[in-house]
Amino acid sequence: MQSHDSYLALTEASAQALRALPCDVVVTGANGWLGRATLDMLRQALGAEFGQRVVALGSRDDPPVRALESWVPPAGRGLLLWHYAFLTKDRAEGMPLADYERRNRALRERVLGWVRGGSVWGMVLPSSGAVYDYLHATGRDAAVREYGRLKVEDEQAFGAACAQAGARLVIARVFNLSGPYINKIEHYALASMIRQVLAGEPVAVRAARPVLRSYYYVGDCLELCARMLLRSVPGQCEAFDVAGEEVVELGELGRCVAAVLQSPHAQVLRPALLADAEEDCYVGDRTRISLLENKLGLHPLGLAAQIRETARYLQTMLAPLPALG
């Protein structure tokens, strides 16, 4: 059961399987959205064992988070690794691409050393829908393609290393997530819209072309990854797009946010759509994840529930905005 200061929890079946696993748990990128969400779920699952079994790693020593670059896996203890340490595409836009590439490859090599050394029992590796921007040479900007290229390299490198070492690997290609611990609020359309509606402001959509998105709740994503990892066999790799079932255009998303948050008269402001504008569709392929959901009996939250849960988290971050009933 979730404690009063927790937002997320694994199912009891997954929590029991995790507690029974003779492994320590390592979370890299612990200060980011996925890192913080994962630590919350692990804290609920492991209870009093959390402090002894979980290691949180970041870019620098800031207790309880330790510096990734200086941490060494303990001998004789298997690791269940949630590897989120990666400079995201917004960082690619703020530095020379050569520096961005060098820093991400250094992170990769550091963690690959743990896999090659036999320390890793199993690993969750979030990738990105941007891999398709690189693989399909789409017209999105250079920073996104570079981000996608490095994510492809990560998938290939960790796939080969885990297969060689007999480690289990789950690769989740993330498109658009929702839910607690979302950060960079103005960077994400859903979070920005929720903030605007909670503040009584109009919802601003800047795009003058159709923009299509689908959303997946972060708790459901992590539950799915945990179940896949705990049920996999040595050397197995499972990769899938994290794609929600409901595809929504941003204008409609703004209206949906207003309706769910009981502000149906909130304005959605956007420029007129250009007649010949190509749509921006970033939604993923549900084929594989749908099969996994059915196989594992997972019923992910629909869009309205995702909006509600994301808003419950954001309203605590944005006090004194009104709390939801």
Automatic annotation (TrEMBL):
The lineage of its organism: Bacteria, Pseudomonadati, Pseudomonadota, Betaproteobacteria, Burkholderiales. InterPro entries: Epimerase_deHydtase, Lipid_A_modif_metabolic_enz, NAD(P)-bd_dom_sf. Gene3D superfamilies: NAD(P)-binding Rossmann-like Domain. Pfam families: Epimerase (PF01370). It comes from Candidatus Symbiobacter mobilis CR. Residues 97-232 form the NAD-dependent epimerase/dehydratase domain. SUPFAM superfamilies: NAD(P)-binding Rossmann-fold domains. This is Nucleoside-diphosphate-sugar epimerase-like protein.
